[in-house]
TrEMBL record:
InterPro entries (alphabetical): Translation_initiation_fac3_CS, Translation_initiation_fac_3, Translation_initiation_fac_3_C, Translation_initiation_fac_3_N
GO molecular function: ribosome binding; translation initiation factor activity
Gene Ontology cellular-component annotations: cytosol; membrane
Family note: Belongs to the IF-3 family.
Protein name: Translation initiation factor IF-3
Every Translation initiation factor 3 C-terminal domain range: 82-167
Length: 169
């Protein structure tokens, strides 16, 4: 993030500043540093105003801000967002239906998305959560070569939830 709160030119209140840039740093009066910046048609910027004496640099501040914003824009463009896709199963799901859902999960994992697999238990099914574990085992046997378990199966209320992440290449 760009720090636009840097002290510039006349806003620097210290009597002396440490001027950095080039190969060495020197301590000079603020007036001299301002005069040097004006001669070069640039700004005197307090990089570290809390230091004693404050650390300053002579630079073209508007160009600096422009380059910083370009860098941030480039970083945002290169950022990869990971979506979580959800697949819902039921405890009484048939083998072919598991195969279809597993194919969908495989597509999601290949496009580098995480997959949240959930089983909802209703009524009496809540007493037979071990059936849900068997359904997850069958599902994982079909998706296991592409995905890796990020969060193991856990019962939360009436739902059993498992999160898969794509395997690293």
């Amino acid at each position: 993030m760009i720090n636009k709160n840097l002290n510039l030119n006349e806003n620097i209140r210290a009597k002396e500043v440490r001027l950095v840039g080039g190969e060495e740093s020197i301590i000079i009066s603020t007036k001299e540093a301002l005069k040097m910046a004006e001669e070069r048609n640039q700004d005197l910027v307090a990089i570290s105003p809390k230091a004693d004496p404050p650390v300053c640099k002579i630079m073209d501040y508007s160009k600096f801000l422009y380059e910083q914003s370009k860098k941030e824009k480039e970083n945002r463009k290169n950022q990869k967002t990971v979506d979580i896709k959800e697949i819902r199963l039921s405890p009484s799901i048939e083998e072919h239906d598991i195969e279809v859902k597993a194919n969908n999960a495989r597509k999601f994992l290949q496009s580098d998305n995480k997959v949240k697999v959930s089983i909802r238990f209703r009524g009496r099914q809540n007493n037979y959560t071990n059936v849900g574990n068997k359904v997850f085992e069958i599902f994982l046997s079909k998706v296991g070569e592409i995905g890796v378990i990020e969060k193991p199966a856990r019962l939360e209320g009436n739902n059993m939830i498992l999160i898969l992440a794509p395997k690293k290449h």
